[in-house]
Amino acid sequence: MNWLRHIAMYLVTLLITVGAASCSGEDCPINNTVMGKMVFYNQYQDAVYFDGTLTVSVVRPQGDSVVVNQKYGPSDVLFPLSYMHNTDTLIFCYSGGGGVTYDSLYISHTNTPTLVSVDCGTAMFHSITSVGSTHHMIDTLILKSSEVNYDERENIQVIYRTAN
Amino acid sequence: MNAKTFRLFIVLLISVFALGAQAQTKKEAALQGVYLSGDVFGYIYPIFVKDKYYSADLALTANLNNRFFPVVEAGIGHTNMVSQLYEIGYSTRAPYYRIGMDYNMQYENGKSNYIYLGGRVGYTAFDYSVNAPALIDPIWGGEVPVLLTDVPSSAVWAEVVGGVRAEIAKNIYLGWSLRYKYLLHQGAVTNGGPWYIPGFGTGKKTVFGATYTISYYFKL
User: Fold this and answer.
1) Helix A2-22 and helix B41-48: axis angle, to 10°?
2) Which of A10, A24, A122 is the closest to B88 by Cβ?
3) Which residues of A touch B133 (CB under 8 A)?
4) Each residue of B87-123: pLDDT tens digit?
5) What's the total number of domains in chain B?
6) What's the CATH number where B114 sits?
7) Disulfide engineering: A125 pairs with which of A76, A114, B66, B100, CB 3.0-4.6 Å?
8) Which of A27, A117, A126 to mutate to test the interface with B (most CBs of B within 10 A)?
9) Owning domain of residue B100
10) What does the alpha-carbon distance between residue B162 and residue B179 come to, in Å, rounded to a whole number?
């Protein structure tokens, strides 16, 4: 009957092994939409914030849509990219002591439908290929990191003509 | 597993092979027998979890002086599941291969039951398909289909192995092992890459695995 005892022992170890292997869970991203990130700098490459409110809208065929609404004192903003277009236009509306000023930002990108995992779903990742803008308050845009995915990183540096 | 842990694995693997080489130099190594093993864990594990992917493999293990155990493993991994939450279909079916060696931590006892440590290097080349609900753009609107068909991929990984093997009847052995796997190389990654890699599992970079084997020992 010694072999029966061996089998019983190994069945127990099997259950323990299954339990141990089952413990590895998966952390899914909280949001299912990925966002790019812009960070604001002055012409000396110092990080700055805008002393006023910033509203960001995206231009769509069916009408503009506000994606950042009157954010006060922003030093950075998160922005979405379209799933089906290859160039998006964002309108920055600055409101402060000097009145209201607008800048348009143009972001060209590619879109990649991405399987995160069967348990976490799918998402649209993007790769920014070029950036440009008008120059009312913005001096230049620098593409810092092209990949827009769940690894939130500084994608675009916005260099302002004047800084607060 | 970070780079430090991986270096530890490489050192361990080199140490095991170095010990083997040393034993052969001293004319100690002698082929005493061969284990033919079948791993059934890959069909037991899915019973207990929601992700239904399966694998089964056969292994040939040489017994060198009851101390070193070079091993070759070959198996097949497959899945054809639809996840409950997101209704994502994922399918693949492909063979995988591993080669490595175990070291009997109790070889001085001279018993046929033993605890071992070892390492493996695994490889697979496979195609996978994904059929997921369309992505809906929440701001601009519109739908983008997520349909990937027979995407080719491949993977190479390393495993640190620890386990036991015990004789339950004459020449019949049961054994289990726990494995820590580290993905060394992955073929072209498109659209997020594969979710399940045959022989490796579902981790992006590291994953735990296990085997539960039944073996027959051919004594020479």
Assistant:
1) 60
2) A122
3) 122
4) 999 999 999 999 999 999 988 887 788 899 999 999 9
5) 1
6) 2.40.160.20
7) A114
8) A117
9) 3-219
10) 7
